[in-house]
Specification:
The chain is an alpha+beta fold and 127 residues long. The chain has one domain (4-124). It is 13% helix and 25% strand. It contains two helices and seven strands; from the N terminus they run βββαβαβββ. The protein has helices at residues 51-60, 75-80, and strands spanning 4-7, 33-36, 44-47, 67-73, 85-89, 95-97, 117-121. It has a seven-stranded mixed beta sheet with strand order 1-7-2-3-4-5-6. The longest helix has 10 residues, at 51-60. The radius of gyration is 14 Å and the shape is globular. The two termini are 18 Å apart.
């Protein structure tokens, strides 16, 4: 079974709706996906970058083919008021976290995390 799936949200149907489809960030953004790591007890909810983030990080972060930046939120980061960046390979489903959340150079770990599952809105399927 592939750990990466792309889903069409069921806007007007509660039955069969995935939890991430109704998740909202601390800034009232709608979640565009979620993933689960073996080592974490909570889900990671993913959010698309806003216009400012796209312009700012587009100049500062180098992405490889099939990679895209998102922000993520967990119950813990929500309490702390943080929405850190995350890099996701949309072909393999591998996830890369920032090396240092407080550094200004936005370097990501070279070793990826392999989620148990990752589900993303179908609009982000680039294949």
């Amino acid at each position: 079974m592939n750990r990466l799936t792309f889903s069409e949200p069921k806007e007007y149907q509660f039955n069969g709706r995935k939890i991430w489809e109704s998740a909202r960030s601390q800034h009232d953004q709608r979640s565009i996906g979620a993933f689960k790591l073996k080592t974490a007890k909570q889900d990671f909810y993913m959010y698309d970058l806003d216009d400012f983030d796209q312009g700012y990080f587009g100049e500062r972060v180098t992405l490889r083919k099939n990679e895209r930046l998102f922000r993520y939120e967990t119950e813990t980061t929500k309490i702390g008021g943080m929405m850190p960046l995350i890099k996701v390979n949309l072909r393999t489903g591998l996830v890369y976290f920032l090396r240092d959340l407080y550094a200004d150079d936005y370097q990501f770990n070279t070793i990826s995390e392999k989620p148990v599952w990752i589900d993303i809105h179908a609009d982000f399927n680039i294949f």
